[in-house]
Write a structure and sequence with these properties.
It is built from eleven helices and nine strands. By secondary structure, the chain is α+β, with helices and mostly antiparallel strands. It folds into three domains: about 5-115, no CATH class; about 155-210, Orthogonal Bundle (Helix Hairpins); about 220-370, 2-Layer Sandwich (Heat Shock Protein 90), CATH 3.30.565.10.
Length: about 375
């Protein structure tokens, strides 16, 4: 650490003061001892064991201090001066660190204490840097969360405003009796009703999304057979697949895949993946669900042929409210929350999900642990 001129002179003054104090102390000790020797020479002599090594006494007077004792006193004096100066130097280092800390605390979070300090002070500086880094990280995380909440509110307000405007519009027409006949009246009420249902779906999805986003959301775990569950689900979707002239089936080499999970939540995930595959696999003929198993996890993929998902959209699919441009314009009526909910549910189970897509196949693959870790 480089000392300022003021600090250097402070150290020099400290040195001189210490030397002065030591000299006064030595002199006082010498005078006291001399006095004692004169007042009670017999008593002192009685206990005079090592005395000759320090002082040569002749008669009742101290004659001289021995060279050995002078060296001893000098060493003690140097050690004391060194100790005091070192203490003062450390204090100065600390003051430097404190003033730099104040500077950082004023909002200069990118500032780093670059002065080189010796040994233990360096450890203090390192710890300060670690602390500052983690504080900055926490602040950034906080800011990110705040920003994403704002985004959420903007998206929700936008998605609610659109159907709400049209509901108000149609109800306004009815209120002002601006319809020609009953048929038109029914048409208006029907549109308002459909839009209101759309809003309900959005609000429900949003509720579900915020619920599964919390890592503390409890899972209602049960033992079940994944193959059987998927076969039931596929049966439920058969009619819809038929309407779209598509085939849907479960493909697996396992008779059963026993596992533990919250089936209600997983069904939500599969419902979305399957309905996505049917809705968005434009020009596709086939949807199939593959079940595989490794030692510890079940790997389930929902696959469909048809139009692929553009490469640049692949890593955004799981963002809330994200919808590929085409599906937006087609008005397929989704909220764009399905995959975000799916990802959170899979994560709650300690698994992960990803998507891949090419001209041949669009796949949503999830890895789920067969057993859930016991929570206390
Ligand atoms: P929601 O599921 O909430 O009703 P959504 O289906 O639009 O609405 P997600 O399920 O999150 O929302 O899907 C997000 C977007 O990803 C979809 O809008 C669609 O553009 C795209 N997508 C999802 N699955 C497929 C698929 N199998 N093939 C092509 N595009 C898909
Ligand atoms: Mg969906």
């Amino acid at each position: 650490m480089k000392l300022t001129r003021k600090e250097k002179s402070k150290l020099v003054i400290e040195g001189f003061i210490t030397i002065g104090l030591i000299l006064i102390l030595y002199y006082a000790a010498f005078v006291i001892f001399n006095r004692m020797l004169m007042d009670a020479p017999a008593m002192i002599r009685e206990y005079w064991i090592f005395g000759d090594a320090i002082i040569s006494i002749r008669g009742n007077q101290i004659i001289s201090v021995t060279p050995f004792f002078i060296i001893f006193l000098t060493i003690i004096a140097i050690a004391t001066i060194y100790w005091r100066l070192k203490r003062r130097y450390k204090q100065m280092q600390l003051n430097h660190i404190i003033s730099e800390l104040h500077y950082i605390a004023e909002g200069h979070y990118e500032h780093r204490i670059t002065t080189v300090f010796g040994d233990d002070m360096e450890k203090v500086v390192d710890s300060i840097h670690v602390l500052v880094d983690s504080t900055v990280q926490a602040m950034e995380e906080e800011r990110r969360i705040e920003q994403s909440k704002d985004e959420l509110i903007t998206n929700v307000s936008h998605d609610i405003r659109t159907p709400l405007t049209s509901i108000i519009g149609y109800l306004g027409l009815i209120e002002e009796r601006r319809y020609q006949n009953e048929e038109e009246l029914l048409k208006y009420t029907h549109t308002a009703y459909t839009k209101a249902k759309q809003m309900k779906v959005l609000v429900e999805d949003l509720f579900e999304y915020t619920k599964v986003r919390q890592t503390t959301t409890p899972l209602n775990l049960t033992q079940f057979d994944m193959v059987q569950l998927l076969e039931q689900l596929v049966a439920d979707f058969e009619l819809e697949a038929e309407k779209r002239h598509m085939e849907i089936e479960v493909i697996t080499s396992y008779e059963t895949v026993q596992m533990e999970a919250d089936t209600e939540k997983l069904v939500r995930v599969f419902n979305n993946l399957i309905s996505n595959a049917l809705k968005y696999g434009k020009g596709g003929k086939k949807v199939y669900i593959e079940v595989q198993k490794t030692g510890k996890e079940a790997i389930i993929s929902v696959n469909n042929d048809g139009a692929p998902i553009p490469e640049k959209s692949l890593n955004q699919l799981f963002d809330r409210f994200y919808r590929v441009e085409e599906s937006r314009s087609q008005e397929t009526g989704g909220t764009g929350l399905g995959l975000a909910i799916a990802q959170s549910i899979v994560a709650l189970h300690g698994g992960y999900i990803y998507a891949s897509s090419d001209d041949r196949l669009t796949r949503f693959v999830m890895h789920l642990p067969l057993k859930q870790l016991a929570v206390e």
